[in-house]
Amino acid sequence: MVSQMVKQMQPQTQNAFRALADPTRRDIVQMLAAQDMTIAQLTERFDMTRAAVKKHLTVLSDGGLITVETRGRERINRLEPQGMAPVLDWFSYFDQFWDERLNKLKEAIERKQK
Q1: Range of 14's domain?
Q2: What's the number of domains the chain is made of?
Q3: Of 83, 43, 53, which is closest to residue 66 (Cα–Cα)?
Q4: Which of 14, 24, 25, 32 could form a disulfide with 79 if both were Cys (CB 3.0 to 4.6 A apart)?
Q5: What is the 3-state secondary structure (H, E, C) of the chain?
Q6: What CATH number should be reported for the domain holding residue 47?
Q7: pLDDT average per 10 residues of sequence, the chain (114 residues)
Q8: How many CA atoms lie within 13 Å of 29's alpha carbon, on the beta-carbon side?
Q9: Which residues form the signal peptide (predicted)?
């Protein structure tokens, strides 16, 4: 069932999960949640090259999780909160599943207590 869901998953959802799969990119998302940052500012916080940080930012952008604004010669990276919507929607399916299962468990326990 889950493998069918993955096959049916929209490309935007797949790209968002791909972007969040890497710990460095998750760190970048957390940093951008606090403030907008340039590539140079992000590179200062990681032990990697500017090119490597740029590749991570490209994956995050492809996943719809960040936007990039050019101001003069600088590129400002900004968290795009709506980019998380496909991921949250995907997880909401499982919320419904667990709610149903937990309700059945509760009912079974209540029947045994009577």
Answers
A1: 2-113
A2: 1
A3: 83
A4: 32
A5: CHHHHHHHCCHHHHHHHHHHCCHHHHHHHHHHHHCCEEHHHHHHCCCCCHHHHHHHHHHHHHCCCEEEEEECCEEEEEECHHHHHHHHHHHHHHHHHHHHHHHHHHHHHHHHHC
A6: 1.10.10.10
A7: 58 93 98 97 97 98 96 95 90 78 81 79
A8: 22
A9: none
